[in-house]
Amino acid sequence: MPAVFSKIDLHSHSKASDGALSPSELVQRALDRGLTHLALTDHDTVLGIKEAKEAAEGRLELIPGAELSTMWNGYQIHIVGLFIDIESQSLTKYLEGQKVFREERARQIGAKLERQGFANAYEECRRRAADGASITRGNYARYIVEMGRAQDTNEAFNYYLKKGKSCYVKTQWPDISVACDAIKSSGGIAVLAHPRRYEMTNTKLRELMEYFKSCGGEAMEVGCSQMSQNDLNYMTSLCKKYDFMASLGSDFHNEGPFRELGLGLSVPKDLKKVWDCPQALSYHFPEVS
Ligand code: AMP
Ligand code: MN
Ligand code: MN
Ligand code: MN
After folding, report:
1. So where are the chain's domains?
2. Is 43 a pocket residue for ligand 1 (Cβ < 6 Å)?
3. Distance, CA 175 to ligand 4 centroid (Å)?
4. Percent of the chain at pLDDT above 70?
5. pLDDT tens figures, 108-157
6. Which CA distances in Å does 225 have to 54, 100, 219, 263?
7. How confident is the model at residue 182 (pLDDT cuts 50, 70, 90)?
8. How confident is the model at residue 289 (pLDDT cuts 50, 70, 90)?
9. How far apart are CA 249 and CA 267, in angstroms?
10. Which atom in ligand 1 lies closest to the alpha carbon of residue 69?
11. What is the mean pLDDT of residues 90-95?
């Protein structure tokens, strides 16, 4: 069976946060892979959007986005904002707050890694990312692998970065409602990212969706990388149950065996698509998809 492939990918990262490619390199990769629409959704920043838009000009539709970190019942939940106005005052204010917060946290994680023998961990990680980038644990994970202290990023999390490990820093991200307000006041659509990746029971997941909906959340990712048919079916049923629009995205960070732009992404035909909303009109999405 040929692998499923989508020309639309609404979740990706660049060096403006924990991606390995610069925004223009990411756009080039999307073009090489035959994509027509790409959303750049770096963690808590829109720093890379301008460069990506310029690189995409006349060749690909680049949708401005951001992936906001939030907290709900002790879970770290990611809310993707799509079709956002990156100049919006309220969004800018929100992201400035997150930048200060992330910077302090990145330094704390760096200091802990130093104690584990990683010299200048913070500076080394910063140097690998774009100027002013949002530094996440993903940046540190790749650095740990590069230093030969873990086989892959998952192992880096298991050894050093996840809750309970030596370099974990407890973090209190904003509430989902605050992130949704920032997205909506910038004219964007709030999308619940990768719902299957939170390691919660189905009951909890439904509670999360109900809360997200009450905060003004309008869409959820139904098509995600490495999702089983069972999960796709279940996500489809939840998308209908809560009357969300469906989105899809690879969450591409870097070249590797698991996630690739457009790869393995699909959304069942009978769902409302996030690209059929009024905000998407100027991006020339295909009428039947
Ligand atoms: P942060 O927002 O700083 O807590 O970092 C979260 C990022 O770390 C995610 O966006 C992923 O890119 C990465 N990440 C989280 N868990 C893992 C894991 N188990 N293996 C590899 N990368 C991970
Ligand atoms: Mn990431
Ligand atoms: Mn995420
Ligand atoms: Mn992501």
Report:
1. 8-97+173-283, 102-161
2. yes
3. 18
4. 99
5. 999 999 999 999 999 999 999 999 999 999 999 999 999 999 999 999 99
6. 27, 31, 17, 7
7. very high
8. low
9. 10
10. 2
11. 98
> In testing the pocket of ligand 1, which one of 139, 157, 170, 254 has its CB within 8 Å of the most ligand atoms?
157
154 lines ligand 1 (CB under 6 A): yes
| Half-sphere exposure at residue 176, Cβ-oriented, CA atoms within 13 angstroms | 25
pLDDT in tens, 211-269: 999 999 999 999 999 999 999 999 999 999 999 999 999 999 999 888 999 999 999 99
Q: State whether residue 114 is helix, strand or coil.
A: helix
Q: Is the distance from CB of 219 to CB of 190 less than 8 angstroms?
A: yes
- Report CA Rg, the chain: 18
Class of domain 8-97+173-283: alpha beta
Q: What residue's CA is closest to ligand 1, atom 8?
A: 138
Q: How far is the CA of 76 from the centre of ligand 3 (A)?
A: 9
- Return the bridge partners of 43, or none: 67
CB neighbour list of residue 110: distance below 8 Å, 6 or more residues apart: 121, 122, 123, 125, 140
At 2 the pLDDT is 64
Decide if pLDDT at 1 tops 60: no
Q: Average pLDDT of the chain? A: 97
Mean pLDDT of 180-184: 98
Is domain 102-161 in CATH 1.10.150.650, yes or no? Answer: yes
